[in-house]
Amino acid sequence: MSKFQKKRGKSSPEISTASLPDIIFMLLFFFMVVTVLRDASLKVSVNVPNATELTKLEKKSLVNYLHIGKPLDNYRELYGTKPSLQLGDKIAKISDIPLFLEQHRNTVPENQRTGITASLKVDGEVTMGIVSDVKTELRKANQLKVNYSAKPRVD
Amino acid sequence: MGKTSSRDRVSNEINAGSMADIAFLLLIFFLVTTTIDIDKGVLVKLPPWSDEPPPELELNERNVFSVLVNSENQLLVRDQLTDIGELRERAKEFIMNPAGRPDLSKSPKQAIVSLKNDRGTEYKTYLEVYNELKAAYNELREEEAQKRHGKSFEYITDDERKAIRKDIPLVLSEAEPSDFGEE
Asked: By Cβ atoms counted within 10 A, which residue in A74, A152, B136, B146 is the most buried?
């Protein structure tokens, strides 16, 4: 009897909480990493050209992406083979750009709106026709900061 | 008796000391394996849109460096068929005009680069041309910074940088593309 009593008295039923902060941090970092990676799935094939005079785009929340390229194989039936514009996660018309920009603008705090950049991810093989149309539309929507996305060139 | 008590101590607590290590290990694993692609590109400022046609400017022809890219991705620089590899050097010579030639820009401040392409021009070529022109300006600014301050353009103060930018301004005007060669 005495043996049993002793045992129960000595053992503490509490779970150690010393590792809890670590677990929380781990989860935090995990979600940080994962949320950055989540991106709209592309319906057009975009292989950006190379360039040397590159600028990094710092704040991701201030950037909106416009993809231009030929539709991927499994979307060919739906959208044809002509170079198309993708806004967010769907193929769009050029006239949809102002609304798209406005929707993004509303998510940005007012004092940061001048820093909004439009990142044009354009396939190298696309002809300038559609790119010029997009540029004209951006100018009309007063979105003048534009970044031609490119890969660094290794000389 | 001594034996039982030592067994009790072991089974009652999970060793939490290694938990932190495991957490860090996982963290490092995710950090290494995930590639957060940083978006890089050529930053451009577009001119504001106006419905009226732009005013006709009287420009001295010597101050204009015209670059035409046709739908065959060929380059016509100042009415001369040019290879893209020569573009940067020609632009630099035009802007600074070190020999004081009468047919090149009067001063860097007055130099204007005019870029025009067809609708059928490949985007790749367009961006390459744009990149070369920007590179020409960046190189000239770098040289100027070395001459004035003996330091790289990156490491001089903001005011010094502004002064150089003012003396070698990048004026690039893009014309509306002509309708050739659209797919």
From this structure: B136
Size of interface A-B (CB pairs under 8 A): 162
- Angle at CA of residue A50, ends A45 and B143, nearest 5°: 155
Q: Which pLDDT tens digit goes with each residue over A107-150?
A: 888 888 888 999 999 998 888 889 999 999 999 998 999 999 99
Examine residue B37 and state whether it is found in any structural domain, yes or no: no
Asked whether residue B127 is domain-assigned, the answer is yes
User: What pTM value is reported for the model?
Assistant: 0.75
Report how many domains make up chain B.
Answer: 1
ipTM for the whole complex: 0.72
Interface test with B, best of A23, A46, A148 (most B CBs within 10 A): A148
A44-152 adopts what CATH topology?
A: Nucleotidyltransferase; domain 5 (3.30.420)
The rounded distance, in Å, linking the Cα atoms of B120 and B71 is 4
Q: Is A63 helix (H, G, I), strand (E, B) or coil?
A: strand
Q: Which of A37, A124, A129 sits opposite B119 (nearest CB)?
A: A129
What pLDDT, in 10s, does the model give residues A21-42? 777 777 777 766 665 554 567 8
Helix (H) or strand (E) holding A35: helix A20-37
Domain extent at residue B90:
62-174
The β-bridge partners of A71 are: A44
